[in-house]
Write a structure and sequence with these properties.
Length: about 425
């Protein structure tokens, strides 16, 4: 199996965290509070990713142009698939091959744990914004795999995602590792991520990749028969929203979300902002990751009340979630959403100026026939305070992307979220807000 340099570089960071995670878990089991400064030798590798304002969104120029969603004055990043072709079929073929290569490294018992039937409803409840100690994930925990197996698992993820999306995802993961090493948090599961396949990986049939942990829950449905990939539903989050790597590199995994959102907000006139704005209070997500959703709509401003330029800016915002794979997949997803954009509503709460040093952050919701997105800054830091680093409000992001017509590619119906109310065992105390 060929391993890309970026996957191997990320493995160096990931492998170095295992000792820290093991020790932290042992101390937690003994009801001992671990000193984050004293556990583990892992560092946040600057070679892994540099997700800053220079590379802010997976909306590629080609993809957005082909769907009439060309960025107008906003920064974009290359979204080329790992096979270089930028096609849906190429991504499916590459991901299936990498997934099967990963399966070949596993024992029969491990394969039984990572493989589920395509329509297994477990896929709807085994992802969350809660730590893995509160909501049990499907599949295999990467920290329990060998080095060869971990590299192979990450190679499957890298094959699925564009270069920029893979950088974004690994930066989110590095953020968890940063908190484990630097914060006051005693949550020993920070940095633990799981991988599962629903259906047999194939370039001719339908199957799903589920990958996630605390601030990440990717659900990608791939169908080689129809050349279709969807990431609905998916949770992308970050805490802290910006941090400094060991070598001084500034990392901001979800910078593109902030930048494209404010580019859209700033394009509105006073009357449009009055319709859009819901107040200063920053609410939480109404559709939590891994839970059911009523898809509220109709609040705020309608797409039909936007100019063509503003519609393009709104599609740039949406591309942060639908543009995680190749150019063709991104263009197709944006074109479908654009077709019903006039019926899509957008609302906004909280700050009206992009200044992470002021206020409590923002909330926005995009709700239409073919897209549901929420972005919510979290007011709590959940004990994850780091001196000089914003870990609440602007610095603690939760988001959700869903497709009201095609979640899980129609393979399963969302069930009630697992966790404390689902009968599974959980640690003592109240679950954090994530």
């Amino acid at each position: 199996m060929t391993t890309s340099p970026s996957t191997r570089r990320f493995w160096v960071r990931f492998a170095s965290s295992i000792a820290a995670l093991t020790l932290a878990g042992s101390m937690a089991a003994c009801s001992t509070t671990a000193d984050p400064s004293a556990i583990g030798t892992g560092t946040t590798s600057s070679a892994t990713v540099e997700v800053t304002t220079e590379a802010t969104t997976e909306a590629t120029t080609d993809a957005t142009t082909s769907s009439s969603a060309t960025a107008s004055g906003t920064s974009t990043a290359d979204s080329t698939s790992t096979d270089g072709a930028g096609t849906t079929a190429g991504t499916i073929t590459d991901t299936a091959a990498a997934a099967n290569a990963f399966l070949a490294t596993l024992t029969a018992e491990q394969q039984g744990l990572v493989l589920y039937s395509y329509d297994d409803a477990t896929k709807t409840t085994s992802w969350s914004n809660f730590p893995v100690t509160f909501v049990e994930r499907a599949g295999l925990n990467l920290t329990e795999l060998t080095e060869e197996q971990q590299i192979a698992a990450l190679a499957a993820l890298e094959s699925l995602l564009s270069d920029e999306a893979y950088a974004k995802v690994t930066a989110i993961m590095d953020g968890d590792q940063y908190l484990l090493e630097n914060s006051t948090s005693t949550e020993a599961s920070l940095g633990q991520y799981y991988i599962a396949f629903f259906g047999d990986p194939s370039d001719t049939d339908a199957w799903d990749v589920q990958f996630g942990g605390h601030h990440l829950g990717i659900n990608a449905s791939l169908d080689g028969a129809t050349d279709a990939i969807t990431f609905a539903p998916t949770h992308l989050g970050s805490q802290p929203a910006a941090y400094t790597a060991a070598d001084g590199t500034e990392v901001q995994p979800l910078a593109g979300m902030y930048e494209t959102a404010f580019a859209f907000y700033d394009s509105l006139d006073a009357e449009q902002r009055t319709a859009l704005y819901q107040g200063t209070e920053v609410p939480n997500l109404t559709c939590a990751p891994g839970g059911t959703c009523d898809y509220p709509t109709g609040t705020g401003i309608l797409g039909s009340d936007l100019t063509e330029e503003q519609k393009q800016l709104l599609l740039d915002v949406i591309a942060n979630w639908v543009g995680l794979a190749d150019e063709e997949t991104t263009a197709d997803a944006l074109a479908e959403i654009e077709a019903t954009l006039d019926e899509t509503s957008v609302n906004w709460s909280g700050a009206t100026v992009y200044d992470m040093t002021q206020g409590d952050g923002i909330y926005f919701q995009i709700s239409g026939p073919d897209v549901f997105i929420e972005f919510a800054d979290q007011q709590g830091s959940v004990g994850a305070d780091v001196a000089g680093v914003v870990t609440g409000g602007w610095g603690h992001i939760h988001t959700i992307y869903r497709d009201p017509t095609d979640d899980y590619a129609g393979s399963a119906t969302q069930e009630e979220a697992a966790g404390m109310d689902g009968g599974m065992e959980a640690p003592a105390g109240t679950p954090p807000n994530g």
